[in-house]
Amino acid sequence: MRPFELPDFYTPHPARLNPHVDSARTHTTRWARETELLHQPRIGPSTTTIPDETEFDDHDYALLSGYAHPDVSASTLNLLADWYAWMFVLDDQLLPHDEHTNPSVEARRHVQRLLGFLRTHAAPAPEPNTPLERGLAELWQRTAATAPPRLLRRLAADTRLLLTARVRQPSRTVAPAPNPVDHLRDSRHSSGARWVATLVEYTLGSSLPPDVARSRPVRLLRECFADALRLCNDLFSYQRETRQERKRDNAVLSIERFLECSPQRAADIANAVLTRRIHLFETTLHRGLPALLTEHALPEQQRTTVLAYANGLRDWLAGAHEWHSMSTRYMNTGPIHTTRIRQPAGVGFATAVHDTHPVDNTGPAVTPGETRRRWELPSWSARSHDTNRTTTNPLLTRLRSRTSIWAQRHGIPENALSSTTHTNDYALLAARVLPDGGETELALLADWSLWARFVNDGAHRQQHRPWPRLAEFLPPDPGDMPTTTEPVEQALAELWTRTTTIIPTRAQRRFRQRIRKFLHHTADEPFEPVGSEPADLLAPLETPHRTARSHLRLALTELRLGPDIPPGVLRSPAMRSLRQVFAEITALHEDLVIAHHRGRCEAPVAAIPTPRRAHDERRHHVVSVLTDLLRTRQRRFESLLNRDVSEVRAEYRLSPTADRQLDNYLDGLDHWITGELSWLLENERHNLNPAPATQSSRHRPPSTDHPTVDAFPA
């Protein structure tokens, strides 16, 4: 009996079949027979069975290759089909293990032997002793004969990563129900999608230009590809992996256990996430990629390579879904019915596609007048960043007046600054995050924050890159400032000139890089409307406008970095991790405050239409995920401060002055987290039902109540 019925999948791109698939099928079966891939001893005890030739043919890895690469030549298709067959057989051979089970010593030793065949230089490879080793040696030799050197090195690195992930030692601190977001992000490197994407690039005959390969649109394509591929596989393989192989590394199972829901509900949620990732992939392909090609002004041949790579990933996604629905390896008895769904259902995806019809799966109906049990969205707390510890700089009143004058002088419109409510009260933000700061740095932080909001709102209104010249007003030498033509340019030029007078040259370079990244990510994607629920499980940590604000926050926190701190300290893994966790905590605070205010303004009723109930349930799941992410990031922040950074101090033997400056910076991060959180809770920009402000309310201390979201009917 199936654990759940497979959902309808969003398939915007039809799968195409390579005309050479029949010859590839014959070739791969013969190749597996000649390398004795199907006749080898099992690696350690296992509950799975090694497929015989009949079962191997039924799994039909050549069909996967034919659907995934519809346009490659016959010889290339043969090679790719052999690669996929070898990897699947390897996966079946290794002892299944999960986060609580150690891989066998024999399996780890076997993988270590396999790594020796991934040579990118002239040194001879070891002599193969097993069928898997013979298969890999032969595959690597054929691939190396035609792959560009740079791509071959990347393929070797990706293959090593994929192999070592199969026998990685489990962490003793892993929770029994991992957060689905962390599970998906971690699996991007270990699931094989990165390796597959490199093989797609191999079929092009040339590598992507390095600048393009590192660009955000191409990285976003790869990330969406990895997430969609993992979710598709985990939906189809749930029964095999959980019942036959006893694996726990499955996204559907992660959702099921974390949200404590049924397998069917978990599958529907996973499918909603899958739909959103494919939708984002398509949007990036049709909008982000053309803009990237125009920006880089690539020659025609390189443009063709980039577009072919993106379409190759697209073909792989469509082909993988088609093969999963047909192969007997998974829980289906034949091709399933596939439709383009009207709207994704699940974790907060009400706006993931353009069709606005209500979803079909909205839960049991509620009879008018019926009273149902209320359930409450998860509460969350700042815990270590308790807003009760927040203090406000006594210079706030004077700072508000000064910020208003500065905004008017530089033409920032009145609706970007309010002196009667907490909306866009960036003077209050500065006073909260710099409770002991002087007037100069307070004014600088407030003005930078107000200017950034002005830029962000401009990006939202214009729906394209606003003010493309802004990056020119951050010259290394302020004396080389170009002539300003618009208020936003004038404000930036003045801000940059003021900033360079109070921070050392080394810090100026870092600050300028962060502001340029802020501008780049702000223009990457239209701003998400304030008050809307997260459109994707991964949105709180990865959407461009959140990434942009993270770069701005990091830039402003580094205004207080002292000149005596060694550069190596700031570049250390502990400090890089600390900045990353800081950025994620502040982004999560913002999303949870939005959910909090949204819940407060939507009063519950005794009986509620089922579409609204489904909407509330989706938000319930979203807040559950965000709350858990916040808790794990807070624990990580504390650990980094108390252990990792202390080790860095000891390693660099900081002078007393440098030590005090580092303490000042770390205290600044903590003050920023608590101060910005208290500001967000009072900032009516995120409150969809603001109360009229009064003179006393503008200066009241932060509330002692941690934000919770009101109850909704079950």
- Per DSSP, the total helix count is 26
Structural class by sheet pairing and helices = mainly alpha
Order of helices and strands: HHHHHHHHHHHHHHEHHHHHHHHHHHHE
Shape: elongated
**Widest sheet: strand order?**
1-2
Q: What do the pLDDT scores average to? A: 76
Low-confidence stretches: 44-49, 97-101, 333-378, 380-385, 417-423, 526-535, 603-612, 685-714
What is the assembly state of the chains in this entry?
single chain
Say how many strands there are: 2
Q: Approximately what portion of the residues adopt beta-strand conformation?
A: under 5%
The description of the largest β-sheet is:
2 strands, antiparallel
Q: From the alpha-carbon coordinates, what is the Rg to the nearest angstrom?
A: 28 Å
Distance between the termini: 30 Å
The helical percent reads 55-70%
Tell me what you see in this structure.
The protein is an all-alpha fold and 714 residues long. Helix content is 59%, strand content 1%. It contains 26 helices and two strands. Strands 1-2 form a two-stranded antiparallel sheet. Helix 1 crosses helix 3 and helix 17 (439-462) runs antiparallel to helix 21. The chain is elongated.
Secondary structure: elements and pairs:
Layout: H1 21-34, H2 53-59, H3 61-68, H4 74-93, H5 105-115, H6 131-144, H7 149-166, H8 180-190, H9 193-202, H10 210-214, H11 216-244, H12 251-259, H13 263-296, H14 300-324, E1 374-376, H15 396-409, H16 426-433, H17 439-462, H18 487-500, H19 505-522, H20 539-542, H21 544-557, H22 567-571, H23 573-601, H24 610-652, H25 656-682, H26 695-698, E2 711-713
Antiparallel strand pairs: 1-2
Helix pairs in contact: 1-3, 1-4, 3-4, 3-14, 4-6, 5-7, 7-9, 8-11, 11-13, 11-14, 12-13, 13-14, 15-16, 15-17, 16-17, 16-25, 17-18, 17-21, 19-21, 21-23, 23-24, 23-25
